[in-house]
Amino acid sequence: MITMTEVAKKELQRLVEKEQNPQMALRVFVSPGGCSGMSYGMAFDDETQEGDQVIDDDGVRICVDEMSAMYLGGSEIDFVNQLMGGGFTIHNPNAVKSCACGHSFDTGNDSGSARSCS
Q1: Could you tell me which of 59, 55, 58 has the C-alpha nearest to residue 75?
Q2: For residues 65 and 29, is the Cβ–Cβ distance under 8 A?
Q3: For residues 1 and 3, what is the distance between their CA atoms, to the nearest angstrom?
Q4: Dihedral sign, CA of 59, 63, 42, 71?
Q5: Alpha-carbon dihedral angle through residues 31, 32, 36, 39, given to the nearest 10 degrees
Q6: What order of strands is seen across the sheet that includes strand 38-45?
Q7: What span, in angstroms and rounded, lies between the C-alpha atoms of 64 and 52?
Q8: pTM higher than 0.85, yes or no?
Q9: Per-residue pLDDT in tens (0 to 9) along the chain, 118 residues
């Protein structure tokens, strides 16, 4: 469903070790909004919810809720280390367009909810 590059996996392992909580996972989700219709979100979470898909990759866990999984299937999480704008990023094959900021996307079915980035 969702995969991670080796760079992203190592960065996530580092961050989870820093939290000192072996139950910690990266929750990846989408929500309506953004200039292209849907926005990506990521947060640390140590609890799974009913309906979550949990991906365990060499001890690194990713949680995705049911609704978000519909939009994120086949996506890859990467980590980019740049002077400006670095961090985790999602390469989503379901996105037919995304905005310049890289935080929102459109799958062709959700553009009606688009609003400008702020």
Answers
A1: 55
A2: yes
A3: 7
A4: positive
A5: -20
A6: 53-57, 60-64, 25-32, 38-45, 104-106, 97-98
A7: 5
A8: no
A9: 899 999 999 999 999 899 888 889 999 998 876 665 778 889 999 999 999 999 998 889 999 999 999 889 999 999 988 777 678 888 888 776 565 555 555 566 644 443 443 4
Cα separation values, 63 from 88, 111, 115, Å: 15, 25, 27
Amino acid in position 72? L
From the centroid of its chain, how far is CA 77? Answer: 7
What tokens appear for 88 in the block? 């985790």
For the record, the structure tokens of 56 come out as 């365990």
Residue entry with tokens 């139950």: 23
